[in-house]
Amino acid sequence: MRSEIEFSLIGSLSSPIDTLLAEFEQKQRIRARLRFTDWLNGWQEVVNYSLHHNEPHVSHIGITWVSSLMRMNALRPFTSKEINALGGSSAFLPGCWQSLTDAEGMVWGLPWTSYTFLIAYRRDLLEQAGVDEATAFSSAHALENTLAALKESGVPIPWAIPTNKAHTDTLHFSASWLWGAGGKIASDSGKAPLFSEPEAIQGLKSFFDLYRYMPPDATQQSNDALRGMFWDGKAAVTICGVDEPYIRQTEGTPEIFERIGFAPMPGVPWVGGDGLVVWRRAQESLAWEQASVALASYLVSPPAQRTYCQMIKNHHKPTRVDVLPDLPLQDSSLTNAVKQALTTGRSYRPIPLWGRIESQLSSALNFVWEEVYAGKPTIDALHETLDPLARRLKITLAG
User: Fold this and answer.
1) Which of 103, 144, 226, 289 keeps 20 to 30 A from 395, CA to CA?
2) What residues contact residue 32 under an 8 Å CB cut-off, 6+ apart?
3) Do the beta carbons of residue 358 and residue 64 sit within 8 Å?
């Protein structure tokens, strides 16, 4: 008789996972029954698993969720023997691995897919401004110099990134500047917020000061409109998700890419993605436990990662270092930037109450955009917004 386990998947990409699970079942003689939910309700569904004790055996989660699940004592950690069987931690992108490993070195999940952001730029406009693209984005200072040169050359919109209230990635964007300046968001223990310390503020100031190169009504523009300015050739530099340029190229606009280049984010790129966790429920029987670990391990194996990332048409990237050479468009500006960002980037650590820190800090940073566009000096907007938040979170985290 075959073992049967439950696997919860977020999203609607059922065809690729059906293919992988069919291969897994054939090899392991284990059936994995799927539960589906969407990203909008994914986190609440995962919380409900723990509250109502109806969790599956294995779940696909956003990697920033693992810290909360650790606090609920809901997960079964992976053993060193299981990790070594996958090639060890060095087989995976450092940022992705870091996001699922706590300060004591316990591994609470396996990184399944990775995600990051890139600088995208118009080669023709950089050439017009006399800027060398090889060094134009090598640091936060170099990026600002590049934008200044573009503005001086007559480019009306040197920099176009989403800044309105609906935008959810300001923290992910600005983290590159914050980390690059030597700042931290929180202490390694998670007990102290550090985003209002001098190094962090300096990095954030460099990021928000770039509003001077943005359209004057940027906070009123939709995310799609601001990114569209770049793809339509009206803006010189933007930030895009790692999936966007691959998707655009496969959708019939390859000629645009002759005029577009890509670079990693300046400083230390943020790396996110999805992970796979095994719930403690799986330990109710040895057969369930072994089957659950086998499924999670199979899904992060090189063959499965290659299959999955190819079938989902470049929406996500692998987490294994040995699968990066299989990315499409090898040796292009795009793929070189992707590989550099993923291998040198950093993720958020799984610390207690990370979800609260991320939610409140994200909202605060979006408010900073409103303040600087209203004319408040950047340094004042940062301190007046972040200092009170840091004081409140310090009390919460210390408790």
Assistant:
1) 103
2) 4, 5, 6, 7, 21, 24, 25, 58, 295
3) yes
> Is the Cβ–Cβ distance between 119 and 239 less than 8 Å?
yes
- Three state DSSP letters for 189-238: CCCCECCCCHHHHHHHHHHHHHHHHCCCCHHHCCHHHHHHHHHCCCCCEE
Residue with tokens 């396996």: 110
Q: How far apart are CA 178 and CA 13, in angstroms?
A: 34
Buried b (16+ CB within 10 A) or exposed e, 30-57: bebeebebeeeebbebbeebbeeeebbb
Q: What is the pLDDT of residue 374?
A: 92
The angle at the Cα of 91, spanning 87 to 95, to the nearest 5 degrees, equals: 140
Which H or E run contains 279?
A: strand 271-279
What pLDDT is stored for residue 251 in this prediction?
Answer: 65
Backbone angles phi, psi at 35, to 5 degrees: -115, 140
Q: Which residues contact 224 (CB under 8 A, 6 or more apart)?
A: none
Contacts of 377 (CB under 8 A, 6+ apart): none
* Cα dist from 237 to 164, 243, 259, 368, whole Å: 18, 17, 12, 21
Structure tokens at 112: 């399944």
Three-state DSSP at 306 gives helix
Specify the pLDDT at position 373: 92
- For 52, half-sphere exposure in the C-beta direction (CA atoms, 13 angstrom radius) is 9
Chain centre distance of CA 344? 13
Tell me the mean pLDDT per 10 residues along the chain, length 399. 78 72 87 85 86 89 87 91 96 93 90 95 95 96 98 96 86 97 93 96 98 89 88 93 82 74 96 94 92 95 87 77 90 93 93 89 95 95 98 89
Gap between the Cα atoms of 378 and 128, Å rounded: 30
Of 357, 367, 315, give the one whose Cα is nearest residue 115: 315
User: What's at 125, amino acid-wise?
Assistant: L
Q: How far apart are CA 51 and CA 70, in angstroms?
A: 14
Other beta carbons within 10 angstroms of residue 28's beta carbon come to 16
